[in-house]
Design brief:
Layout (H helix, E strand, L loop, with lengths): L3 H13 L9 H16 L5 H5 L2 E8 L6 E2 L1 H12 L5 E11 L5 E13 L5 E14 L5 E10 L13
Parallel strand pairs: 1-6
Antiparallel strand pairs: 1-2, 3-4, 4-5, 5-6
Amino acid sequence: MKSFLPLLVFTSLVASCQPPPPPVDLEAAKKELMDADKAWSETTKSADRFASFFADGGSLYPPNAPVQTGREAITAFVAQLLSTPGIAVEWKANGVEVASSGDMGYTTGTATITVNDPAGNPVTDTQKYVTVWRKGADGSWKVVADIGNSDNPPPAAAPAQTP
């Protein structure tokens, strides 16, 4: 048994001497991720194209609605949203970070969603968002989680009724 110990130590040392992976060009990765966010922002008229940016099992956390997980649920939710009269969705990333490994990152930004109120007048909700992205084996960035919430004040509460 003792004769195997030097071989085990040698094998462990050789295995631990593997060269580290090449460093990630974080600036290039940030640009790629900002480009991915911009390309995604151009899909707001197609539920299928919008959902195609999500990773398998990715989740959309829309304001005032339950979480939508998986492309099928996201596609159905967005298709219903796009049928809303006067709907217009726009967003722009204004921040980006990428992990030193180069395979995870997030974007932050602002968004506006406009819909028609019951009288047909456009009403705009200003929002901010955070989107978490993962880089796939094919090199493309996919959304793992996207969440946004409103900058607008909550609607006024109805006055309390006295008995």
